[in-house]
Amino acid sequence: MFLQTVVTGLSIGGIYALMAVGYSLVFSVLSFSNFAHGAVIMLGAYIGLGLVTKLHFGLGLVVAGSMAGAGLLAIANEKLAYSLLRKRKAPSLYLMISAMGCAVFLENMVYATIGSRFYAFPEFFKQNVLSLFEGTCNVAVLDLFAFGISILAILGLHLFLTHTRTGIAIRAGVSDMTMCSLMGVNLDRLISIVFFLAGIFGGAAGVFLGIKYLVYPTMGWVTNKAYIAAVIGGLGSLPGALLGGLILGVLETFVSTYVSSVMRDVFSFGLLIALLVWRPNGLFGRDTGEKV
Amino acid sequence: MRRFLSLVLVLAFCLALGGSALAADTIKIGHTVSLTGGASMWGQSEKLALDLLIKKINAQGGVLGKKLELISYDNRNDAVEAVNVARRLANDGVVAVIGPAQSGNSIATAPVLEKARIPMVVTTATNPYVTLDKRTGKVRPFAFRPCFIDPFQGTVAAKFAFRDLKAKTAAILYDVGSDYGQWLAKYFEEAFAKEGGRIVAKEAFRSEELDYRAQLGKMRPLNPDIIFIPTSQKEAAMAAKQARDLGIKARLMGTDNWGSPDIIELGGEAINGGYFVNLTDLADPAIKGFVAEYRKAYGADPVLPNPVMAQDALLMIVDAIKRANSTDGAKMAAALAVTKNLKVTSGPLTIDPRTHDPLDKPAVIQKVDVTNKSFPFVKKFYPAGK
Question: Tell me: domain A2-125+141-278, CATH 1.10.3470.10, correct?
Answer without folding.
Answer: yes
